[in-house]
Amino acid sequence: MSLELREVRKVFKNYGVETVTVENFNLTVEKGQFVTLLGPSGCGKTTTLRMIAGFEIPSSGKIILDGKDVTNEPPNKRNISMVFQSYALFPHMTVEENIAFGLRIKKMTSSEIKQKVKWIMDIVGLIGLERRRPEQLSGGQQQRVALARSLVMEPSVLLLDEPLSNLDAKLREAMRIEIRRIQKELNITAVYVTHDQIEAMSMSDLVVVMNNGKIMQVGNPFEIYARPRNEFVADFIGKVNLIDAFVEDDKDEKLELRCDIFYNKFFSISKMFQAKKGQKVKIVIRPEAFRLSPQGIDNSNCIKGKVLSSIFVGAAVECEIQVSNSVIKSVISNPIENAIPDIDSEIKLYFSNESLWII
Ligand code: ADP
Ligand code: MG
Question: Which residues form the ABC transporter domain (predicted)?
Fold first, then answer.
């Protein structure tokens, strides 16, 4: 393992008022893993990253790096590099000098420095821009310099705090792929911070969903999307319908559920869910789980309602459907022209049991 946080907690004290910013934080990051801390603004992501880097000391708990307790070590005693949102490049230095800066401080020979700078510039795609100054570079190029400057130090762990938020949408998408490519090529361990769920889903081996300083769930992108552990995760990751249901029975291998807004109120699903008879649960169903066509699907797995909105967005139609007193969101992919639901029309949508999740 590369990095471990054990029961990490951080309390800030301002004018005698204590704010718990991070608590019960437990995480193990394996060598070569790309782990993302994901959560809304103010949930404690940056504070956690700063504790890993050594810019903040935990109020309690331990940080273990490559098997060594570094909880109280200063940043320069940890083999860690951090990429900031603002890039923090030296404006008076060339690209080459910016990248070489950390190596100079390490007192490497100039031929070693030259070789390493060339090696990393090649990997991040900066060849030809050696003599430029930061102001003569585009945002994406500046981002690459910031990345190169961190990577050239060959850290045990690379930390990145919302590194793409200053780029426009298209470049952001391209840089997601680039960063992931470079991280894999160098097999470097990375902890990435973002509030953008698409970024987290598309880049990570492991996503740590945070809220109010606490971990809500740790899992791979599929798990946090398809098997959220609570309402916060279900709602924060993409669009979702959360539907009230009641456990009628928990016999044998099946859970018998009653859900008032389903066409056939009673249905059963396999018992991978920890719910007991008499319990109220919520059914998690993603908008894309619905189908218009009933082909091969049991007629009981269906909802019926009135179309409130129907928006054609090219690859899909996004509909809102009034079903008794709930509004259900659906995304119907590959629509054909004559099958786009009309507003105010009655509609039936089908889903499979496999697309349901219970919390
Ligand atoms: P995020 O990066 O998820 O947006 P932060 O870790 O920056 O969140 O901040 C989490 C909370 O901790 C915020 O409410 C912030 O105001 C508070 N906080 C961060 N740094 C300090 C500090 N040095 N003193 C007091 N409060 C702080
Ligand atoms: Mg932050």
Answer: 3-237
- Alpha carbon of 21 to those of 39, 192, 207, 235: distances in Å? 13, 18, 19, 22
- Is residue 203 within a helix (H) or strand (E), and if so which, with residue range? helix 197-203
CA of residue 189 to ligand 2 center, whole Å: 20
Please say which residue of 208, 235, 262 terminates a domain: 235
**Which value, in Å, is the radius of gyration of the alpha carbons in the chain?**
25
pLDDT tens column, 167-201: 899 899 999 999 999 999 999 999 999 999 999 99
Task: Name residue 257's beta-bridge partners.
Answer: 247, 267
Q: Are residues 190 and 46 in the same domain?
A: yes
| Average pLDDT for 308-319 | 92
Q: Which residue has the tokens 């910013």?
A: 21
19 Cα–ligand 1 center, Å? 9
Pocket of ligand 1 contains residue 42 by CB under 6 Å: yes
Letter string b/e over residues 301-318, b meaning 16 or more CB atoms within 10 A of that residue's CB? bbbebebeebeeeeebbb
pLDDT in tens, 205-214: 999 999 999 9
Which residues, 6 or more positions from 126, have their beta carbon under 8 angstroms from its beta carbon? 95, 141, 144, 145, 148
Counting every residue, how long is the chain? 359
Query: Do 272 and 206 sit in the same domain of this protein?
Result: no
pLDDT at 294 over 70: no
> ipTM score here?
0.98
Q: Which helix or strand (DSSP H or E) is residue 122 part of? A: helix 110-124
pTM, rounded to two decimals: 0.92
Sheet with 241-249, strands from edge to edge, namely 266-270, 254-258, 241-249, 280-285, 356-358
